[in-house]
Batch of 3 targets.
Target 1
Amino acid sequence: MNQAVFNFLVDKSTRTVRVERSFDAPVELVWAAWTDPGILDQWWAAAPDRAMTATMNFTEGGRWHYCIVNPQGHKRWRLFNFELIRPLERFAGTDTFCDEHAVSDPSKPRVRWDYVFTSRAQGTIVNIAVRFERLEDLELIVRNGFTEQLEAGFNYLEQYIAAQFLLRKQYKNNNMARVATYLNFPGNTEEAFNFYKSVFRTDFTNGIKRFGDLPADPAHPPVGEALKKMVLHVELSILGGHVLMGTDAPKEMGFTLTQGNNMHISLEPDSREEAERLFKELSAGGKIQMPLQDMFWGAYYGDFTDKFGINWMVNYQNKA
């Protein structure tokens, strides 16, 4: 696709907003943008607000419990109930207001979302139907900039998130087990990694990939000069084969870092069975963010916060 398609139609007779958007990315990657909470949290809310997932169980009958946080720290809790899932093709469900314990508020409106993903030779088309119970709710959200918020979020998805996950596949080229620590920085990744490099006296794997290395796309606004030098991905081996991975998560692209989301321990076991054992035992008593499942970059992947508040990723990728 040479130019992104973005169509937006308000049908008051059915109280439905219909959105069509094209992406220059495979359907597996676009599907993940809506089903991986690590990606959803980066773009779902309109800046300066941010989304924050409490739990997600992406199965029919499962739920996504999340909140929208404003700059003052106020949280507006929501609950999405997954009613229909056809992997890589369609999912649908209802979104309601709730509290921090995931108890729905029946006095507040319910909104039904229906997503259809269509793979094309050069990308993916996503068709979204958003149906409101009351006409006044539909009119209010349109007046509050629903169209502009969606379009801005979609642009960031293509520019940044897609490249992040494609790089994960490129950097891991064998089945050897390893442990990595994934670090997020607000813009000083290169400074931090040059410091670590001097301490451990090792070198970067495949150099430093920067935002400016992303190919220009006339369908999207150009990357700002301040962002071009920021780090998209870097890897550094330290002791005993342990790997540090890092990226800049700039506020200019809607990212908000805290002491809780700036670091994950990433486990890359040498078998699918070991991935399942580690995930099951480490997540016991904790909060699962993404259940262990086959992902678009060829990995068996899941992530969670353990009962002590530590963030983990389990990522098995068969390179046979």
Target 2
Amino acid sequence: MHLQFYLPESWQWVKQKLGQNSLPCTKDEIKEISVAAPGPLKILEDSEATVKAFLDELSSSHIIHLACHGKQDPADPLKSALYLYNGPVELSHFMQKQHLQSPRLAFLSACETALGIQHLPNESIHLAASLTFVGFLSVVGTMWSIQDSDGPEIARHFYESLFEGLENSHAEWDSATALHNAVQKLRESGVSFMRWMPFIHFGI
């Protein structure tokens, strides 16, 4: 199993172009995932997390996890993007990739990756749902901005649940149940519903 994790922790480009703040808890997020994962991880962070590096590795990864800023473009949905070290990975970039392996899971630990469009309630064109059409069997996204400190908490419980029992090579992961369990843990901690509600699962 090839696990792929991207944490573009250097925010020079993001600050200049988007006016966004840094996300310091992404470091904690990858630590939590590393503990839960059944094997070594391929991690791209800081200056390694370039658009080219991401796209080069994409086709060989069974799981990708992106902890970064995200933005939906309601005027041009194909420009909705995840922001890496040196620029955006737009939805159009994913659509150009072919021969994606399966099973495939994308966890988009970023803001607005499953944000609907108010004037098109029945036509949700956003990153999370669209990735299911370009080869991902399962996608986790967010309906609005999430609190930075919730990323590590959700990630820990999600991957603990996902990988439980996978010592058996014939076992299959259940990402929908894993997300349910992770959100339930966050909810039980007593946080506002605005913090546990945005996480959503697409696919199987």
Target 3
Amino acid sequence: MLRGLYTAASGMLTQQRQQEALSNNIANANTPGYKSDQTAIRAFPELLIEQMGGTNRIPTTQGGFNIPSSRQLGGLNTGVYVQETIPHYAQGDIVESGLPTDVAINQREVPDENGAIFFTVQNNDGDVRYTRNGNFTIDADGYLVTNQGYYVLDENGNNIQTDGTIDIISPEGVIPTAGGDITIGTQYVADANTLIKEGNDLFQGDAEAVPGDADYTLQQGALEQSNVNTAQSMTDMMNAYRLFESNQRVLRVYDESLGKAVTEIGRLS
């Protein structure tokens, strides 16, 4: 009976984590460049049930003796758990914003199935991070920064000084300035699933120069929308809620049965 309690409880915890991931996706449905999270649900290792306690009689000349015996009954699954949360890196829709500092990565084809191209930025600790959120602006010192205030880096890993304004960004990411042309830095990750999601639309991991056979452009005055499917996420949330309730009812039944076992069946007459 206790095993059933643990199985139902693990189901409730799994659906709770599923609900949290879906809620976060819906909350960021309007965040530019946001990549939705998907939960990978796995079952705990299956156990083999074996019946023990029986005996086999071995005859001998002196009357025989008993040896313990066992019999396999089959497998038993002990519940499920969320193994990991994986971002989904599919390209989001490109929507025009009309702002000259907004830039969208229009990724059409890359060499690797799970490959992705990112902007390079510098976080508050001075470390290089990657993002698909091209909602940029110009700070008081004339540097190109993200809407969280992180410096956008050029192809050489330096901060981008815009002289206070941006008129043109070419499809290759070139920005004409008084000091010469500056190219917005982009990097390529062959397997985007190896990246670590840090929050604030930032990813941490190893990247390399964009391959020459990658087909992509940078589109000025536009933003890549999140790839969250709001309708599907709402449906999945309802399913997770129903599954949570089902496990909750099972847990309640087990709790009532245990209560009867303690207060009624075990009562001395």
